[in-house]
Amino acid sequence: MIRIEENISLKPYHTFGMNVNTRYFAEYETVEDLRSLLISPLIKNNNNLHIGGGSNLLFTKDYTGIIIHSCIKTYTKTEDLDFVYLKVGAGVVWDDFVAYTVQNGWGGAENLSYIPGEVGASAVQNVGAYGVEAKDLIERVYTISVETGEERIFTNEECNYGYRTSIFKKELRGQYIVTHVEFKLHKNPIFKLTYGNLQAVVGEPTLMSVRNAVISVRKQKLPEPSEKGSAGSFFINPVVETEKYQDLKKQYPEMPSYPASDGKVKLSAAWLIDKAGWHGKRVGGAAVYPKQCLVLVNDNNATPQDVIELASQIKNSVYEKYGVIITPEVNYI
Description:
Blueprint: E1 2-9, E2 21-28, H1 31-38, H2 41-44, E3 48-51, E4 57-58, E5 63-70, E6 75-79, E7 83-89, H3 94-103, H4 119-125, E8 128-129, E9 132-133, E10 138-145, E11 151-155, E12 176-186, H5 198-202, H6 207-221, E13 229-233, E14 239-240, H7 242-251, E15 257-259, E16 265-267, H8 269-278, E17 282-283, E18 286-288, E19 295-298, H9 304-322, E20 331-332
Parallel strand pairs: 2-5, 3-5, 4-20
Antiparallel strand pairs: 1-2, 6-7, 7-12, 8-9, 10-11, 10-12, 13-19, 14-16, 15-16, 17-18, 18-19
């Protein structure tokens, strides 16, 4: 079934809770529904944007085209001796998927508990937390070509995953819509607890204890979208060359860091922002969340321009102080 509405508020469909509208909004429940929608005059004659849970979006003004959203929420399971392969609909809420894996005793996703968004977007964004990324679990990504309506299945390798990015955000941006994601999960869980202080919080590791610990830590740092609008982590942790890191470490010995690929070093954007003096500061109705400087919040009926200006000032300040560029993880629409 396809549902189409006109001139509706986007407040319920993105976690920043901006007071913006869209001319058209469409939801679909099956792949065939999506194919029908893609060949409709409504799509052909309007700009369109496919969204997930809206947890990584900042609408800068009313959207004059059509917003599309998946309601595909199926689970299909196959297995072998050691692994479960779970094909999940793109419209499934990400944390519902994680809870489902934990309840069934399948390991791999527990560190990714309580990340906002939906399953389809996880394969585009390569979400990650506590030393685990979606790419570590993804076996295949099922998509439909926007141009032809034909299905294309991408292997993990073909997705070209990197830190918070994929082929769907870069070379093939806007060309394919994710319909399902297949995850490879361990029947005998292998716990990853070395990131931050997770081991200390977890205690005796079980899938449920890890999930509960991650949720507890995230709730302490992040506001509930229903109470205070945000897009979670607003900036990506910057990755710098080793030489740059060593220079900074001499000046700031307490600066946290993590190994990245190609011998580079990942820095904490939250630490850089905090030490640059942005704790709790605001522009208009937008503010830096006091419990986590990486989060910008809609604190008091913020306008999109408030958030944009606050983010810009933070970015410039961090560069002036450290010579490090931090970039938004949030997509400006």
